[in-house]
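Quick one, tokens below:
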């Protein structure tokens, strides 16, 4: 009887584990080096061209890696209102669109104790499925597994801490990113 209820013995759990494994592999990816803060903003503008309402973008990198700088470029590319600054004192800041595009919702994950599900409870004055949601995560906090997501990992070049160069990995997960042209942003 007990074996029937143990997760390892259930075929359904096996299928779920397979799905989880598949989800942990990117469906698209590219790498690039960015030389300066301006280069990071340019990358954001290029990525913005690929973004659609409902997209989730997760940014990983240590403090000062350039997550907020990249988000500034995303905001410029999307054409949204308001200066993109560090969301340190709020959980999420909504930047409404200036034109027909989606709003940008800029989230500081450190303040989201319960993960992305908690976003729905924030009562933001915007529909998340109609917005582009950008989440700044700290190192190692990438356990959230929304099926479709663009994950941007930012690393300072090894060595000098005043080195402006950043190594970037763009990893798309899920069907959304399989043929979305992610390579075109990594020029
Ligand atoms: N290539 C680069 N990309 C992004 N930021 C850079 C780069 N080189 C230097 N910087 C500087 O590093 C800092 C990054 O800060 P910020 O974008 O707020 O990082 P984070 O949000 O990851 O903590 C800024 O002061 C920026 O001018
Ligand atoms: Mg930041």
């Amino acid at each position: 009887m007990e074996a029937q209820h143990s997760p390892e013995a259930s075929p359904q759990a096996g299928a779920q584990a397979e799905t989880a494994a598949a989800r942990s592999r990117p469906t698209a990816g590219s790498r690039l080096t960015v030389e300066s803060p301006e280069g990071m903003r340019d990358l954001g503008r290029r990525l913005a061209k690929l973004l659609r309402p409902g997209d989730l973008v997760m940014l990983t990198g240590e403090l000062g890696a350039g997550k907020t700088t990249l988000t500034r470029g995303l905001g410029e590319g999307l054409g949204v209102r308001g200066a993109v600054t560090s969301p340190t004192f709020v959980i999420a800041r909504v930047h409404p669109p200036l034109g027909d595009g989606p709003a940008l919702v800029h989230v500081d994950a450190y303040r989201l104790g319960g993960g992305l599900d908690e976003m729905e409870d924030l009562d933001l004055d915007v529909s998340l499925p109609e917005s582009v949601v950008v989440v700044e995560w700290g190192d190692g906090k990438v356990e959230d597994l929304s099926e479709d997501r663009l994950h941007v990992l930012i690393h300072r070049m090894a060595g000098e801490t005043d080195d402006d160069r950043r190594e970037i990995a763009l990893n798309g997960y899920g069907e959304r990113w399989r043929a979305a042209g992610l390579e075109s942003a990594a020029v």
